[in-house]
Amino acid sequence: MSTEARHHHFIPQAYLQGFATQRGKGQKKQWFTFVSDFREKRSYDTNVRNVCGERDFMRFEIDGHPPTKLEHELGHFEGKACAAIRRVVETGKFEGEDKIIVLNLMALLAVRHPERRENFRDFEERVAKKVISAALSKKEYWESEMARLSDKTGKTYDTSYEEVKARHDRGGFRIEVPRERLIGTELMLLDTVLELLFKRKWTLYTTTGEHEHFITTNNPVVLSFLEPEKVPEHMRYSPGHGLPNTEVCFPLTKHGFLVGRWDRGGHTEAAKPTFVAIRNRHMIWHAFGQAFSDKKKVLYYSPTLDLCKDDKLVENFMTEPTLENED
């Protein structure tokens, strides 16, 4: 029987433990987080292993290597990164090797996500369909392309132009984009994002209070405009990492929160309860449908800017939180 792990977490379990509570005794201790699920419109308590995972998400088929090699290598790094996160919060210092490791994790989380991967896949599919449409615009174009493909592969393609054209016109083709290609795109983007994260000035906010805890979401690295109302609407909801007047937010644990800006930062600051509430609201607005907290009752500002501390995130944010709703 194969012992190969097929359930891959796109957000590490060790990271989610920073927003969870430990239960049980001895080797049976496990971590549980409180989930506010805005898509399913319900809240529930669950083991961190049950969230932020997909089957074969990082499976990479390449000759000469096991398909789980990339997942294993990333898992090893993620363990080191989450240990660095704990040290940063405990010491109040975001510097040195720990800073390097944490920024690498942030870059990885910024590019590796099912929602973003689907965006990449959809783009590749739309491009492929346009190429097919162009090739089918004239019979001679198609026959020329098939001849070129036959020369390249050594195979003969007998399907007639008329048959392919008719099927294409009625939407009969599904374009499959290999998972390996999508993962490769993510890894190429990672270097660019990491370089830009290093150029920002980072402020570490910490809290030791038992009642003012940060939350995280299934979109923990949030890039946003500082003044979105001054940005053209079609650009407002997808800023680039290199653009001015933007900030990057990343909850480290329930007691630590990073903010990266171009104009100021580079210090550690005690987080006031209002700051915690503001940032929790900000994270909720930018979630991909789920928020995670170590306790049921969360400190946050509601959509109507009421200061709340309760377990009614789903009720108060009845529709799935999106940036469009933030104003």
How would you describe what is shown here?
The protein is α+β, with helices and mostly antiparallel strands and 327 residues long. It has helices spanning 13-16, 69-91, 96-111, 114-135, 139-153, 161-169, 179-199, 273-285, 313-316; strands spanning 7-9, 21-23, 30-37, 42-47, 53-55, 201-206, 216-217, 222-225, 246-253, 256-261, 268-270, 290-293, 298-301, 307-310. The strands form four sheets. Strands 2, 3, 4, 7 and 12 form a five-stranded antiparallel beta sheet that branches. It is elongated, with a radius of gyration of 23 Å. 28% of the residues are buried. The model is unreliable at 323-327 (pLDDT under 50).
Task: Estimate the mean pLDDT confidence.
Answer: 88
- From the N-terminal CA to the C-terminal CA, the straight-line distance is 54 Å
Helix count, DSSP H or I runs of 4 or more residues: 9
Task: Describe the oligomeric state of these chains in a short phrase.
Answer: single chain
Q: Helicity, in percent?
A: 25-40%
| Helix/sheet category | alpha+beta
What are the segments in which pLDDT stays under 50 over at least 5 consecutive residues?
A: 323-327
Whole-angstrom Rg: 23 Å
What is the element string, with H for helices and E for strands? EHEEEEHHHHHHEEEEEEHEEEH
The percentage of residues in β strands lies in: 15-25%
* Main beta-sheet annotation: 5 strands, antiparallel
Query: What spatial form do the alpha-carbon principal axes imply?
Result: elongated
Number of strands: 14
Can you summarize this structure?
This protein is of the alpha+beta class and 327 residues long. The protein contains nine helices and 14 strands. Helix 3 (96-111) packs across helix 7.
